Structure formats: structure tokens, C-alpha cells
Amino acid sequence: MKYILKKVVIFIIQCEAILVLKKYKPNIVAVTGSVGKTSTKDAVYTVLSGSFFVRKSEKSFNSEIGVPLTILGVPNGWSSIPLWLKNITEGFLLIIFRNHYPTWLVLEVGADRPGDIKKISRWLKPDIVVMTSLPSVPVHVEFFKSAEHVAREKEHLIRALKYDGVLVLNGDDERVRSHALSSGQSVFMYGFDKRTDFQAQNSEIEYMDGKPSGMTFRVSYCGSSTPISVQGTIGNHQIYPILAACAVGASQGLNMVKIAEVLNREYTPPPGRMRLIEGKNGSTLIDDTYNSSPAAVGRALETLERVTVKGKKIAVLGDMLELGSHTADAHLEAGKKAAEFADILITVGIRARDIAEGARKEKMKKGQITITQDAREAGMELTKILKSGDLALVKGSQGVRMERIVEEVMAHPDKARTLLPRQEKEWLRRV
Known about the structure:
UDP-N-acetylmuramoyl-L-alanine:D-glutamate ligase, globular, 17 helices, nine-stranded mixed β-sheet
């Protein structure tokens, strides 16, 4: 009964969303890929909102139900029937009466299972499509035959792009770059590669009182170089969303100086994406707890290696879920990288025991490794060892609830609701 009711609700709000798009005709930016969708969506929104009336997907509203909710401008009803009835009513009123509707929508579009994006692309026709990254072992690969099948699912959105649309591609990802050859639309590529249109250069980590505080870099485009500074996050992979946003902005006639000004002033990376948070005992935390995949773990650990600190470098790594047949090998490989870049390793969950095994194979000593069952236990273990000058990276799939570790060891837990992911009532109720 619950399944049938859900399908009925999805059908109704999707129909309403289609009618709203036909009535108000907003420009649409659709962001897809396997890594960095939400950060890219937020950066694109920041750039466009400096010049236009824009709405973006809240949190990670990127599914067959999340995309219509964003179009209608209503919240997730979760398990509340009255709230869903309210949402449906508001959608109906939006169709019947004229409203002050956004001129731009920035939508995140994801795929958990085969057919997810194909269904959405039947009725969603974007003006701009941004493709972020398609790693060899993507998140959510469990329900697909291979990484290639994941990539093909994402490609449905490119095929839905309007004939005069704009395609923005991560030029550092060969699988993504290949779409530039098959597209008849305007194409912009971004990345660190010299062949890209929007190239990041001179990336540096900034420090304040001996602790990492953010990063600076320059964006080269059409012969000019523009400086950009981002506070509260680190990692070259956190530069990609900003480059994508620059490409989207420039495609709409915005100049790079104005784009940089808006980003420097307004952009804040979303919670749980390499966010720098003050930890207990004078330590620093890298909160990368929103989700996890092999490629993202690798990038996070490489960032940990880059940072200069006075104390220890600690990697707290949890289970990576939905990897299917790649599970064991992916966790072993993560452990090998952790042994290379961290002084201490704490693993969280059953699958993450293979991370510990991978670290041991790379000669990480037994005394440097702690195996825990869940986030609460890991938080207590981390509390015991954090000292002044230490830097702790915390990362794992959302089902492991790694944000609870950060809450346990952050210097100001009263700020958890604004700094950490999954702080909504529905999430907090879950065990």
C-alpha cells in the first residue's frame, strides 16, 4: 500500500512539475555525474544568483521525486500525508495562478538504479548540462552491471539537452571529455589540464594560526587569469565545482571578474564536503562525511597528505556502500592509500575492516590502526587521541552516519545543525 501511495504521489507532482515548466519556461541547468554534483550545483547557483532570479535543488534533491519538488518549490514530505497533500495543493495553485517564478533552475540529477535519469530526461529538457566526473568505480554502482552502464545512464541527460544548449564537461575525466566529440551544442571544458577552456592554476592551501583555513587558485580563460579564494574547504577536487560554475556563468555572458567577486563573497561549500571544522583540544577536522566512493576517498587522502600540520594526520574511514562486486578491492585499496598518507587510521564498520587490512599490507603498524563497529565508537576513540595541531579526515558513506563522529569531536557541537550534513529531524530520528 505504501509503495502504491508513493508511486501515485510521484506521478502527481511530476505532472505538476511538467505543467509548471511549460507555463513559466525557466532556463534550466542540469548537473549530473558520479562525484561532486551537489557542490557543483551550489557553485553554479552562487554564480547565476548574482545576476538572475534562481532556484536550486535543496540538499541533494536529485531523484524522480527530488527534481519535481525543486521545480514546484516545495519540501520533502517524508512520511507525512498532510505535508504531501499541502505540496500537491501548492503545485496546483502554481499552475492555476500566475506566480513570481525563477528565471533559472539549477537542478541536480542523479541515478541510484538503471533507468532513473532516462525517466527524468523524457520530460526535462535542459538549456545547460554539466557533467562532473565518471570514475571507474562510481558510487551507486551496485545496481549497475559496470561503470560503463552508470556512464550511459548519465548520458541520457546530455541527449535531452536542447539543440541550442550548452554542454559543460570536466575535461580532466577522459570518459566525460569524450562527449565533447559527439555533441553538436556549444561545449566548454574545465579542469587542471591545459587543454581545458577554464583551467585552474597555482592552487595553494591557505593557513591561519598554523592551521588550514581555505585555498586560493587562479582560473585561466581566454587569455586572462582571475584569482579566486575559497574559505572553509580544501582539496583540488573542491576546485572543480567552481570551475564548472565559471563556465556556466561565462556561457551566459557574465565576465570572469564579476564571477570571481560573487564566488569570493557568497560561495560556501555544502556540509560534509571537505569542510574545515574546529576540533577539540586545538585540532582541525576535515568533514567529508556526506558520502563516499573509492575515487573520493583517494582524493581526500591525497589532500590530507598535502596539508602541513604540527601534529598527527588521522584518517577516520567508514564503509563505502553500494559498490557491489567492487567492495572488497575498493576497501583494500583505500587502506593502502591511508597507510601512505596518514599517521593513524580508524576504521568504521564491517566493510571497513578491509581498509585496515589494506593498511597492514602496506606495513602500517598494528598500534597505528583502530577498528571500530560504528560511528559512536569511532567518535570516542578519536576523542582519546586528538591533540593540539592534529588534523583528522572523517569520511564514509551516508548510511554509516560518519557526521556523528564529527559532532562528537568538534569544538562547538552547538553548531552541528548548521555545519554538518543530515541534521533534519527525519535523519536525526534514525538509529
